[in-house]
Design goal:
three-stranded antiparallel β-sheet, binds adenosine-5'-diphosphate, globular, Rossmann fold, binds magnesium ion, 2 domains, alpha/beta, six-stranded mixed β-sheet, single chain, about 25% strand
């Protein structure tokens, strides 16, 4: 069963004088897998996620996702409200899942230091969070949502190596709280690639290689993974 995929697709608001943003993409990600998407800045990693979200049109071919999607954007967003409201995002409160998401996203110590815990107002007119805290609140929102497919756009870029490693293990990896869900992880953190089921290497809007980290390493494609 296909978790998500693109068939022979070319897509993008960029079609026209400059040509399509993504070209000749033929990709399918099996249900339940953790798939990393790597490539240099501007290689269309975020565009690939936009395509799967239906935010970018395919001029040729199709993009299809089986089931519901949860998405953590590259630029984390916070709205004026409490920490808890920002994580729940109008979904019902389930104490166990909420606690699991907060802990896995390494937010517990930050919340304990806030004046009113997770009732503390953040965003406009509230407490100003650091970039790393915003990233983890936005990640916790995506994680809390019970979806079939999770799209994460470089979620570890704003956190330090130790915290990033914990988030990878407890949230993103095959032993984390989303194990068994289809996860597409855009990342520059190549140290996590051996723990991903599949790696997609993008360059200039095209898929340069796909396979397990070991396969890519053996084929020499690892050099694209930056
Ligand atoms: N909505 C859009 N409309 C037109 N061009 C876009 C849009 N989003 C991204 N692009 C272009 O697509 C290319 C790849 O961008 P992006 O997907 O953000 O790369 P990456 O995430 O790998 O850094 C860039 O040239 C960018 O200008
Ligand atoms: Mg991007």
């Amino acid at each position: 069963m296909i978790g998500s995929g693109l068939g022979d697709g070319s897509s993008g608001a960029g079609t026209g004088a400059t040509g399509p943003t993504l070209r000749n993409i033929s990709l399918s990600i099996p249900k339940g897998q953790l798939c990393a998407v790597v490539g240099p800045i501007g290689s269309c990693k975020s565009s690939l996620l936009s395509c799967l979200l239906g935010e970018m049109e395919c001029s040729v071919g199709y993009a299809r996702v089986a089931g519901s999607i949860s998405y953590a954007a590259q630029k984390p967003w916070i709205f004026a409200g409490s920490v808890r409201e920002n994580i729940l995002f109008h979904r019902p409160y389930h104490a166990e899942r909420y606690e699991q998401a907060v802990r896995a996203c390494q937010l517990k110590p930050d919340i304990e230091r806030l004046p009113a815990g997770d009732d503390t107002l953040i965003g406009e007119r509230g407490v100003n969070l650091s970039g790393g805290q915003k990233a983890r609140v936005a990640l916790a929102r995506a994680v809390y949502s019970d979806a079939d497919v999770y799209l994460f756009d470089d979620p570890l870029s704003a956190v330090d190596v130790v915290v990033g490693s914990k988030i990878f293990q407890h949230v993103l990896s095959n032993s984390g709280m989303l194990a068994g869900k289809t996860r597409i992880l855009v990342t520059h953190q190549t140290q996590f690639l051996p723990q991903c089921d599949n790696v997609v290497v993008l360059s200039q809007g095209e898929v340069r290689a796909t396979g397990s980290y070991q396969q890519l390493k053996a084929s020499g494609a690892k050099k694209f993974a930056c």
